[in-house]
User: What shape does this take?
Amino acid sequence: MFKRLFERDGRLAESRDTDADWEEIGRSNPYYGVLTDPRFRAENLNDEALVDFFRSGEGDIRQASKILKRRYPDFAPASALDFGCGVGRLTRALAAATGDAFGVDVSEAMLVEARRSAPSGAAFGRDLPDRVFDWIVSIIVFQHIPPERGYPLLKALMERLAPGGFITLQFALYRDPRHSAVPGGRIAIGEGFSTISNVAALRNLPKGEMVMFDYDLTVIAAILFAAGIADMELTHTDHGGFHGAFIYGRKAS
Assistant: This one.
């Protein structure tokens, strides 16, 4: 079973193939790889757990819609792009909300699961479509992508946001001092969690580990501003001392 690992220095990412990690997770534990609840482990998964899994996606999209509707009363997207869709937890809910949702993921194994009994209006693929969308959503995804790859991907996503379109994005930004890495490789910081503090430790991880990365909010803001998203709202997230933000916003028409 994979552990969740937190990488201290973005430069270490050059020595880690996170795409291979996610393909392995998609093959061995696709639902648990999306939501780390024991009910969603492959050995525990049943029909009731699957219902709860996808219901959680409906709740997330309902909450995001509520926030955007409060800020933008005319919020009524007719299409949505779910970046890092995994098995389609959010894509299904986005299809129900908009009638036209496309989920993108790097793991073919995840996409196989996503396509099982996919609802009308939901489609999936590995590549970003060459079209624009009214709403771009990415939740608990960029934190698993090395920033050196993530920033260009964010730019590519914003190129696919329609004028007047909306964003719901989540990033990990920093961690409590108690979670800071120390010299010598890996340190345990709690059950199932470790911190990577040097290149050798990262390279020696077996394939299929879940690695997390911090992002620079200044860089994120610069990308969004350049894409015409000048109006934004941030809400704080805290996952056991690992802090981040949801970003809600709208592109100028």
In short: The CA atoms of residues 35 and 188 lie 21 Å apart. Helices lie at 18-28, 30-34, 47-71, 89-98, 108-115, 147-159, 199-203, 217-226.
